[in-house]
Design brief:
- By secondary structure, this protein is an alpha+beta fold.
- It has ten helices and 13 strands.
- The strands form three sheets. Strands 8-7-9-10-11-12-13 form a seven-stranded mixed beta sheet, with helices on one face.
- Helix 2 (52-59) crosses helix 3 (64-73).
- The longest helix has 14 residues, at 191-204.
- It is elongated.
Length: 286
């Protein structure tokens, strides 16, 4: 499926009937309410990449082709040359022996396309050597328990610099999370964006506020010694959902969905999904 880049832009809404958009390619004066709504939506979602299906769903089957042509001709959108890549295998790394043993029994014996490895720490020569052996058409899933925030951000940067396809998983606040699938060449939100949004929102939301406070966001930036709890992997229902999640994420036919959403698993083993957006203070776009 085709994807389209949205050059970084500023939008000035004069009223519901007209708006001005400025990006690197110039300035456009818009009077089409649907297109104005489209750019206000992607601005709210912090999206800089949309699929053709996303455009079709927004404008409708009858209108999207002509609207898409207009946006391309006006350089409001640009064709993405490199589309989401299919991965042929999945490699799982974890710093928790319980989940490693569980996956070794359930997955490695039943699925040749999924392999798993245990490392006490990811910041090691052994881990870096193993990453060099992994082909670029493999998906890397890193499962942290416990999770050190500094090690997490190091790993995200390490894999990003090598253009690896990866996602992360970790426990937090009595739930278990899987980030979206990320690769630097896709320019989608990265796992650092996800965890930063998650921690800042959950730690700073107060009784009278629905958004993170500025002070807590600053604390997140400068305090990289955040320690998250260790998950015991004794909850059967949650374990089954974790295994199911890994199998689903490992199916590259659903890559469009899993590159844009993260998963939350509760204590009852129920999954829910939400859109991943760029965290303004993350450096993954640099």
């Amino acid at each position: 499926m085709k994807s389209y880049l949205i050059p970084q832009f500023l939008i000035l809404n004069n009223d519901i009937n007209n708006a001005v958009i400025q990006n690197k390619n110039g300035i456009n004066y818009l009077t089409n309410r649907s297109i104005i709504s489209f750019f206000n939506k992607v601005d709210d979602l912090h999206k800089n990449l949309v699929t053709e299906q996303f455009v079709e769903d927004f404008f409708g089957l009858e209108q999207y082709k002509s609207t898409l042509k207009f946006m391309l001709d006006s350089q409001l959108l640009e064709e993405e040359v490199e589309y989401y890549s299919e991965y042929k295998s999945t490699v799982i790394f974890t710093n928790n022996k319980k989940i490693y043993n569980l996956m070794s029994k359930v997955m490695n014996e039943k699925n040749d396309a999924i392999t798993s490895y245990y490392f006490n720490t990811f910041q090691s020569d052994q881990f870096e050597a193993k990453i060099k052996e992994i082909s670029d058409d493999s998906l890397i899933i890193t499962i942290f328990s416990p999770l050190d925030f500094n090690e997490y951000t190091w790993l995200c940067d390490f894999l990003r610099e090598r253009n690896k396809i990866y996602c992360t998983a970790f426990p937090y606040n009595k739930k278990f999370y899987f980030s979206n699938i990320y690769s630097y060449k896709w320019k989608n939100a990265c796992p650092k964006c996800f965890i930063s949004e998650l921690i800042s929102s959950l730690r700073s939301t107060g009784k009278f506020y629905s958004m993170p406070t500025f002070q807590t966001v600053i604390d997140i930036i400068y305090n990289e010694n955040i320690k998250l709890e260790i998950h015991d992997f004794n909850n059967l229902r949650m374990n089954l959902e974790i295994i199911k999640s890994i199998l689903e994420i490992s199916d590259s036919n659903r890559i469009d969905f899993f590159t844009a959403t993260h998963r939350e698993i509760d204590m009852d083993g129920n999954s829910s999904f939400d859109q991943c957006v760029h965290w303004e203070l993350c450096n993954c776009m640099e």
